[in-house]
């Protein structure tokens, strides 16, 4: 059975300010979706709300993961169900190595499934981590570095992708920032998604620019405008945006408001 993340009529905001105004979206395991839209339209808000960021309030609608409503669950509970969010701005933790961080994350999930679990044996974990680093063409020394401490933008993305590879979530949300990744970081993320995307992983790539979609081919593209998904289509929709920008959607939305 394929896992499915279903967002239905979602309204959410922060400090009493409404940002999401009726989002509908379905992402299944094994599918790559792109969420695009102008700056300030609510894309990062959706990512945060999906993962359960405590600053945001859901006022209406549902987020279902295999039929379970996530809205009342904490971020760690959502993660244990198989949801993953790559941070836009990952936090540095000097003193904690990438390997120890990932092992702790893997163990936390194992313990959630079996409270008596003694943790993954270190040799087994090392073997898995090496396998994932080889898959992603990462130097093994990377695992020994302190998490995000002094990392370049590209290395931070690498750490996020390695986390994705190691935790093996069912659905991953990658927020690719409005400021735009440098081209190295972009290639790392794209290569990671292409390498890891398979029948067992669904991905929602959030992006302002169409650039990353030169490297990752989405099955479906959704466009968000003012807190709502106003258009969806195949990969060709991203190409149309590249050529025509977002103005035609804004014009159409304004016409619809005028007609209403
Ligand atoms: P996007 O990712 O599409 O650029 P965001 O979700 O970051 O859009 O922002 C949508 C709107 O919500 C913007 O107007 C932004 O200023 C506002 N917003 C987002 N996060 C916060 C926050 N933590 N506090 C106040 N306003 C916020
Ligand atoms: Mg954003």
Q: Write down the overall geometry.
A: globular
Trace the largest sheet across and list its strands: 6-9-10-3-11-12
The arrangement of helices and strands along the chain is EEEHEEHEEHHEHEHEEEHH
CATH superfamily placement of the domain at 4-90 and 169-259: P-loop containing nucleotide triphosphate hydrolases
Instruction: Please identify, by name, the CATH architecture of the domain at 4-90 and 169-259.
Output: 3-Layer(aba) Sandwich
Give the biggest sheet.
6 strands, mixed
Strand content: 25-35%
CATH top level label of the domain at 4-90 and 169-259: Alpha Beta
Give an overview in words:
With 260 residues, this protein is an alpha/beta fold. The chain is 37% helix and 28% strand. The chain has helices at 43-51, 75-81, 98-113, 122-135, 153-167, 183-196, 236-244, 247-259, and strands at 4-14, 17-28, 32-36, 56-65, 68-69, 83-86, 93-97, 146-147, 171-175, 202-207, 220-225, 228-233. Strands 6-9-10-3-11-12 form a six-stranded mixed β-sheet, sandwiched between helices. A four-stranded antiparallel β-sheet has the order 2-1-4-5. Strand 9, helix 6 (183-196) and strand 10 (202-207) form a beta-alpha-beta unit. The longest helix has 16 residues, at 98-113. The N and C termini lie far apart (42 Å). The structure holds adenosine-5'-diphosphate and magnesium ion (MG). Adenosine-5'-diphosphate (ADP) binds next to helix 1.
